[in-house]
Amino acid sequence: MPTHFVGTPEEVLALDTFIKLTRANNSLLARIAHRSTHPDLSVSQFGTLEALYHLGSMSQTEICGKLLKSGGNTTLVIDNLEKRGLVQRRRDPEDRRVVMVELTEAGLELIRSIFPRHAQVVAEEMSVLTAEEQRQLGELCKKLGKGNAPPDATTA
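and the corresponding structure tokens:
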């Protein structure tokens, strides 16, 4: 559905594009959720486990940056994962102000067991685009994510 806003051609194009991007993202996420690639985990919980699995232990601040979530939200997500025995917190021995988060054996076992299916489902959903279209979309999303930020900004 295009915008019904009457504005400059640039505004109308930008709003139409934004609507399409938002609807495509929401639709893709809904289809992936419908296929239950990470049962019993919220999107944020799954994202946290996946980040720790692929990147290793991180500070809570680093996890916030990777997931683009607030500190309060990330703390709650980690609290809940910790209650389930999937992650543990520890103070960084180099800087005791920093709290590091790492997977427990149970967390590692869980993410190892569910991630391959998640990757398969994402690949299946993305297959409506050719490999080249996926690369182009990735570059466009990266550019859009950085916006008009200074060249050294790392928001995307």
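(Above: one complete record from the training split.) Residues 32 and 82 are 25 Å apart (CA to CA).
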